[in-house]
Design goal:
6-stranded mixed β-sheet; 6 strands
C-alpha cells in the first residue's frame, strides 16, 4: 500500500502491546481451499452428500464468528500476522511487515476493522 494513501485515509495512533503471538497459521484454511482441486480426481466424482454440509458449516462458522482469514499471497509479500493483547486485555490481529520479537516494541497503527489493526509506521 502506498504510504501517501495510508496517510490520507487512515487515522494513525500509538498502540501498546502486552502480549504477542504469531497468527500466520490462520492462512491454512485458504491454502487448503486453493489446493483442494488438486486432490480430486474429477469434479463429478466428488461425494456431494459430504461436501455440501461441510461447506455450509464452514460458511456459518466463518460468517458468524470473529475468525479472520487472509490471502496467503500476503505472506509471500512478507506481511506477518500477530495476535496481540493490549494492557487493557483486548486482543487484536496486527498486520505488519516487521518481525515482532517482544511485546514492548512501540507501534504506530491504523484500525482496519473492530479487531484488526495494520502497522503504518514506515
Amino acid at each position: 500500500m502506498d504510504a501517501s494513501i495510508r496517510e490520507k485515509n487512515l487515522e494513525r495512533f500509538n498502540f501498546s502491546v502486552a502480549t504477542v503471538e504469531a497468527a500466520d497459521r490462520e492462512n491454512m484454511g485458504f491454502l487448503l481451499l486453493y489446493l483442494l482441486p488438486l486432490f480430486t480426481s474429477s469434479f463429478t466424482s466428488l461425494n456431494w452428500t459430504i461436501w455440501v454440509p461441510t461447506l455450509l458449516i464452514f460458511a456459518v462458522i466463518t460468517s458468524t464468528g470473529y475468525s479472520y482469514h487472509f490471502n496467503p499471497l500476503l505472506g509471500i509479500m512478507k506481511w506477518h500476522f500477530y495476535k496481540v493483547g493490549t494492557p487493557e486485555g483486548v486482543t487484536y490481529v496486527l498486520i505488519t511487515k516487521k518481525e515482532l520479537r517482544h511485546a514492548s516494541q512501540p507501534l504506530i497503527v491504523s484500525q482496519l476493522t473492530e479487531y484488526i489493526v495494520i502497522d503504518v509506521e514506515d
